[in-house]
Amino acid sequence: MEALLEIVGLMAVVVAVYAASRRFHLLTPIALVVVGLALSMVPGIPTFHLSPEFVLIGVLPPLLYVAALETSVPAFKFNLRPILLLSVGLVLFVACSIGLLVHALLPGVPLAICFALGAVVAPPDAIAATAVARRIGLPRRIVTILEGESLLNDATALVFFRVATAAAIGEAAGLGEIGLQVVRSAGGGVLIGAAGALIMGFLHKKTTDPLIDNSLSLLTPFLVTAAAEALHASAVVAVVVAGLYLGHRLPTLMSAASRLQMGAFWRMVQFLLEGSVFLLVGLQLRDVLGALDTPLGEVAVITTAVVLAVVITRFVWMFPATYLPRMIPRVGRNDPPPPWQVPTVIAWAGMRGVVTLATALALPATPLVGGGDYPRALFVWLAFAVIIATLLLQGMTLPLVARRLRLQPDDPMQDILAEAATQNAASRAAIERLEQHAAGAPAEVVERLRRLTTERNNTAWERLGGGEETPSQAYVRLRFEMLDAEREVYRTARDSGRIPEEVLVRAQRDMDLEESMLERSEHA
């Protein structure tokens, strides 16, 4: 019962903070961390011990999977160069830089375990940066690059972490074995993810039951993760590959009912998991501080140095990685150099999160090779300090930085124009298909379908206008009122016993579906 109450309390805090953030226009991830930090110091609040296995196997796979499902594969491919430079090159650069820095500050600590700490703090969070970027309306390409980075950087960091810890405890045999481990991890992850995507895609195509489709979707990241872990491959890469493939093929794999239900289901899962992990990060403060036994002055110096290095190394890497490849004529022609504001804001969006803390908690507690010792509690604190500092410093100031840099947001009129042109082509195709199959159908039905297609086409073009209420907006407003009246009649009939509950449920479902479509068109 006590565990149940703790979980319920955790969820209640997440919901309350989310509601307050929406009400006062706060950044939800930052607010949850701050609330977690405050609650961790309140006497009587239970201690939530964050398990590395819980995060890396229970939380990270579904969050990566849903992010991959929603990622545009064409946009991902177009931005593959900057994504790989950040998710692989930058992670290795930061990990090595931090490792060398910590080894210089603590010369008695073996270099291998210092590199392991570098791998811990190297990858930005898979949730925080894109959540903040979308909220403040950064240009779409920046969001795509940050999303792509967050999908793959954990894989690089975890592989580097495993290699460094293996060397630190004496399990690494040499460069050949290390190279083989890297190839097996990355290549195996790609193969397992592709195999999982093909199998799950086949199963999705064979079922039309939304409940089975959603169950398969929920199982996919965990099954792929289990297979990757069993074969010592990268579970992160496997989940991302499976999610990208299935997300790209989703319209041809599932029925409309399955897609609608799956979208709502994953939004709920994402909301609860993301909120919980940010709150849990803040709640770890008491445990992390309690284990710390290094002198306060030394802690302050090392913490300041590591936090500054984490922030600075991202800038040091970002500008050469942005502009040097474009000095190659072919690259520069296909992708002209962006203004300096773009790499600046990407460099500032380097918030760390729960994966950093989970990996820090996985640092070996066993003696290092040769009986060497290291301040494990200090290393865990450094990871925690990097998370809090980057979330609060960079996360809270990213909106201000974006405004001061005067980044030009995407022009919504361009999106509307592209949608209208595509809808026009889609309407022509629909009318042609209607003419091909209209034989034998009642004339009034054919005319109704033709009129519906024309209205949908006109709605897309109406968004290009402005000012006065358009016919489509008037339709939505008035139809909302009509649906309210219809619902009241059905509820009254149910309450008076004139219709059974089942009739109300069926009618309510149809009206809810229509209202959700109206809301989508209203906010488009």
UniProtKB/TrEMBL annotation:
<dbReference type="GO" id="GO:0098719">
    <property type="term" value="P:sodium ion import across plasma membrane"/>
</dbReference>
<feature type="transmembrane region" description="Helical">
    <location>
        <begin position="300"/>
        <end position="324"/>
    </location>
</feature>
<dbReference type="InterPro" id="IPR006153">
    <property type="entry name" value="Cation/H_exchanger_TM"/>
</dbReference>
<keyword id="KW-1133">Transmembrane helix</keyword>
<comment type="similarity">
    <text>Belongs to the monovalent cation:proton antiporter 1 (CPA1) transporter (TC 2.A.36) family.</text>
</comment>
<keyword id="KW-1003">Cell membrane</keyword>
<dbReference type="GO" id="GO:0051453">
    <property type="term" value="P:regulation of intracellular pH"/>
</dbReference>
<dbReference type="GO" id="GO:0015386">
    <property type="term" value="F:potassium:proton antiporter activity"/>
</dbReference>
<keyword id="KW-0739">Sodium transport</keyword>
<dbReference type="GO" id="GO:0015385">
    <property type="term" value="F:sodium:proton antiporter activity"/>
</dbReference>
<feature type="transmembrane region" description="Helical">
    <location>
        <begin position="378"/>
        <end position="401"/>
    </location>
</feature>
<feature type="transmembrane region" description="Helical">
    <location>
        <begin position="109"/>
        <end position="132"/>
    </location>
</feature>
<feature type="transmembrane region" description="Helical">
    <location>
        <begin position="83"/>
        <end position="103"/>
    </location>
</feature>
<keyword id="KW-0406">Ion transport</keyword>
<keyword id="KW-0915">Sodium</keyword>
<feature type="transmembrane region" description="Helical">
    <location>
        <begin position="182"/>
        <end position="203"/>
    </location>
</feature>
<dbReference type="GO" id="GO:0005886">
    <property type="term" value="C:plasma membrane"/>
</dbReference>
<feature type="transmembrane region" description="Helical">
    <location>
        <begin position="268"/>
        <end position="285"/>
    </location>
</feature>
<feature type="domain" description="Cation/H+ exchanger transmembrane">
    <location>
        <begin position="13"/>
        <end position="402"/>
    </location>
</feature>
<keyword id="KW-0050">Antiport</keyword>
<feature type="transmembrane region" description="Helical">
    <location>
        <begin position="6"/>
        <end position="21"/>
    </location>
</feature>
<dbReference type="Pfam" id="PF00999">
    <property type="entry name" value="Na_H_Exchanger"/>
</dbReference>
<keyword id="KW-0472">Membrane</keyword>
<feature type="transmembrane region" description="Helical">
    <location>
        <begin position="223"/>
        <end position="247"/>
    </location>
</feature>
<feature type="transmembrane region" description="Helical">
    <location>
        <begin position="54"/>
        <end position="76"/>
    </location>
</feature>
<comment type="function">
    <text>Na(+)/H(+) antiporter that extrudes sodium in exchange for external protons.</text>
</comment>
<dbReference type="InterPro" id="IPR004705">
    <property type="entry name" value="Cation/H_exchanger_CPA1_bac"/>
</dbReference>
<feature type="transmembrane region" description="Helical">
    <location>
        <begin position="26"/>
        <end position="48"/>
    </location>
</feature>
<keyword id="KW-0813">Transport</keyword>
<protein>
    <submittedName>
        <fullName>CPA1 family monovalent cation:H+ antiporter</fullName>
    </submittedName>
</protein>
<feature type="transmembrane region" description="Helical">
    <location>
        <begin position="345"/>
        <end position="366"/>
    </location>
</feature>
<dbReference type="InterPro" id="IPR018422">
    <property type="entry name" value="Cation/H_exchanger_CPA1"/>
</dbReference>
<keyword id="KW-0812">Transmembrane</keyword>
